[in-house]
Write a structure and sequence with these properties.
Elements: E1 6-12, E2 18-25, H1 26-29, H2 35-48, H3 108-124, E3 128-131, H4 141-150, E4 158-162, H5 167-173, E5 180-184, H6 190-194, E6 198-202, H7 206-214, H8 216-221
Parallel strand pairs: 1-3, 3-6, 4-5, 4-6
Antiparallel strand pairs: 1-2
Length: 223
């Protein structure tokens, strides 16, 4: 059985006060960082979000060109066969982009390793915080903003990882997606974490994050 190394992290209340300390799994939050893998995985995740619908017309697709602009010889000008040539204004495009699929399939092992590297990097940079509870009394944005201000996150684009998104949190955060994005622990990946400056994790979401990062069997073995 694996021996789980632990490191303590401060847990904050919604009012910004310290609620105590919690031990983090070093296999998830203190692992060596594979920067090259992070780069490859982030590029793949970004490509998978591209629609790939861009298109340009080649000379066979533009209008016109049925008649030769002028006769072949005797005009003193360069010879041309069609106004659809890329040399002409309104002509076709040479080597222009066409619809294509940018999707890249990634092995599950690479995804998990990249997630571990992303989480470990945030912790090393001191950009990872723990929150005791994500429950809000009312589904109001101003109440969530008060929590954000109390934690000192008002100037940082933050990813909030929770175990479940209740209706109050869903409605309160709907107007703050650019500043404060909320995601389920079972759906989070390295791309989500990397594109945000700070990562805030609800206590109850830690087991789900460990399971996603290590795999179900290994997560159980480290407990």
């Amino acid at each position: 059985m694996m021996v789980k190394k632990m490191a303590k992290a401060i847990v904050y209340k919604s009012d910004g006060k310290k609620a105590g300390e919690l031990e983090l799994n070093e296999a998830v939050f203190g692992a060596p960082i594979n920067h090259r893998l992070l780069e490859l995985v982030l590029k793949a995740y970004g490509g998978n979000q591209r629609r790939g619908t861009h298109d340009t017309k080649e000379r066979a697709e533009v209008r016109g060109g049925g008649k030769k602009p002028w006769k072949q010889k005797g005009t003193g000008r360069a010879r041309h066969s069609s106004r659809r040539s890329p040399l002409w204004r309104g002509g076709g495009t040479t080597f222009g982009p066409h619809p294509r699929d940018y999707d890249t399939h990634l092995p599950d092992g690479m995804k998990r390793t990249a997630l571990i590297s992303a989480l470990s990097l945030k912790r090393r940079e001191d950009n990872l915080l723990l929150l005791e509870d994500s429950n809000l009394n009312q589904p109001k944005t101003k109440e969530l903003i008060a929590v954000i201000d109390a934690l000192g996150l008002q100037d940082s684009r933050t990813l909030f990882i929770v175990n479940e998104i209740n209706e109050n949190l869903k409605r309160a955060s709907s107007n703050l997606k650019e500043l404060f994005s909320v995601r389920l622990a079972r759906d989070v990946n390295a791309y989500h974490i990397h594109r945000r400056k700070k990562v805030l994790i609800e206590n109850k979401a830690l087991p789900a994050i460990e399971e996603r990062a290590l795999g179900k069997a290994e997560a159980k073995a480290t407990k």
